[in-house]
Every structure is written in structure tokens, then in C-alpha cells.
What does this fold into?
Amino acid sequence: MSLDDEVCAELAALETLHRLRVPRVVDGAQGPQVIIDGRSAVNFASNDYLGLAGDPRLVRAAATALEEAGTGVGSSRLIVGNHREHVRLEVEMADWLRCGGVRLFNTGYAANIGVLSALLRAGDVVFSDELNHASIIDGCRLSRADVVIIPHADYRALEAALATRRGRRRVVVSESVFSMDGDVADVDAISTLCKRHDAAFILDEAHAVGAVGPEGRGVAAELRVVPDVLVGTFGKAFGSFGAFVATSRAIADLLWNRARPLVFSTGLPPSVPAASRAALEVVRRDEGDARRRTLAGHARRFRQVVRHAGGADGSAIAPIMIGGDREVMACTDALLAEGLFVQGIRPPTVPPGTARLRVGMSAAHTSQQVDILAKSIMSLRQIGNQHD
It folds into this structure.
């Protein structure tokens, strides 16, 4: 049997399990209303939490940089690709986040892999929440450190592991807002345990930065916790693209030398950090506060109707547990037929038997759109059968 035949058989097996992934096609800009597969729908599948992805100010900033600096930088930043737009964004982010240094990465996936593999090696120990994102899981594996998986949000288990597992360097890594469950880690408790047991703390705030906390600086800032390393993205609340690591000056300098995704990747096009700088101006000002209040209000409004929706109070992520893979995709199709797009999430993104509709709120939604979605979800047969 040829490789192609083997792959075709693998694809057929995925289709039988209702886990074959086929991307949909979006036309036009991201926003609360999108054209998906040629059909207009209200978009509740995005991470565009503040509604900035189609904002004209970001578009103008990107267009100006595109005209002035061209479409690409031609090399990695350590050769000739370190454009002034990269440096400006790093400086402004460090000032906003009140840290010693910031490094840009091309994606959030690259940021987590880069920082974990740069700071850890064989003989080290990393303590990772079992529901951490795939990029954290892969970063832990690539680091060659010993990996201790901690049951989700089980801080007693974390303390027990920290008390018994020794290594040259020990690091605890967690998300703040978990991307598929919408719950929020007890960042203060994790920080306290790290200090008590002499471990470093790496916090992924991808789904919090911009959307939560004072000036949108995230969960850690809201609790006045300072992790050793904070990872965030520009592709969610900032409505742009790319990612960053915010940390001390020394660690930021080490990343130039040890973070392989940074060292060996062509730098972001200058238009991208230019758009992110424009987004930062919105995020950290009064307008950002207003958008965050609207976002939290939409989430509360939705959960008042859909009481079995998951996620922490105020979280923009509200999962609806369905269970079966076929059933969850039937829900997605039924909602899309009503002009509402909510993505069904299946294994391996989530554990088997926990397929779900992942509702993502945006400040750009209207209260009427939120109400329509809530009522439509409650009318789904798969939902009604579980909650009669």
C-alpha cells in the first residue's frame, strides 16, 4: 500500500468518527457579521474579543507601513529583518505591561514553543496543567525537561508535586483563561506556590490580554501578580497577528540567543506590528475599557439565558457541552442554517466525549444578536434532550 493509500484510509477513518476537519471559507473582513461559505452569518466563533480585526484604524496603520516598508523584511530579525516597527511595538508593549523586555514571535504557538525550549532542558522539571494549549504541551516536550501533568486547576496536586519533584530548574506553566473551557486559573494561588517552592512561573494570557484586567493587561495584572514570563497574542483581542513574550530584560535577551522560532524565522511584515501598535492605542485607553465592559456584559447576558453554558463569569468564552462528535457538528450546521456560526469543537482539541459548541463573544456584537443566539441554542434538540 502506498503512502497516499494509507493517508486516504486514515482520512476515511476520521470521517467515520465525525472528526474529519474541512476548513470553511470566509470572504471579507472579520467582524460580528461574516460571509462564510458564501452565506452571511453572525460570527460567534472568533477570538476577536474587542471587535478590532476590521477596525479602520488598524487597516490604515497597516496600509501606511505597507506603503513605506513593503511586504516583507527579507530575513530573520537577527540578520537584516529587525525593522523599526518591530522595535517600536516591543518598546510600547514593555511600557504597557511594566516589564523589562518584550520579544515578538510570529504566532502564539511559536512563542510558547520558543520560550519553553529556551528556558528548559534535560534535568529540569516543568509542571503543566492538563488542559494547557497544544503549543504549551509541545513546548514542554521539545524542551526535554521532565514533564509533570497536573490535574486541571488542582492546586493541592500542584503543591504536592512541587514539594517532591526536584530538578536543576523548575517551572510551572498555565493558561490564565483556558481557551476551550473559558474558566480562569487561580493565578494568585499558582504564584504563591511558585514562590514557596522556588519555581518559576510562565503564564499564557492569550485569551486575557486586551480583554481582561486594568487597561486590558490581563488576569495577572488584575490580581497584581507578576509572573516570570507572560505570553500573549495580537491575533485575538488586538485584532491583528503575531504574539509576544513579556519578561525581564535578561530573559528577553536570552530569547534572542535560545528561542529557535525567533532566531530562525523571517520577521513579521512591518505592516503587522504597525497594526498591533494601533490596536494597543485602543486597548489601553478609555475606549478599550468601554469595549471590555460591553464584552463582559454580553457574556453575562448570554449565561442568564443559557444557564448551562460554561466559562467563568465575565469570560468571553462560553462552551456548551454536547458530548458526541456527530451531534456537535449537527448543532453547528443547524445554527448556521439560522444565520449563526458557532464552531463545534471535537477531539483531539478536547477530550473524547466532551465535544462542545464554543461560543466566543465580541464587544462588536449587539445585545439583540446575543439574545438571538441564546434562544437558538436553547431550541436545539441536542440541548433540549440534555436539559429537560
Remarks:
- The chain is about 45% helix and 15% strand.
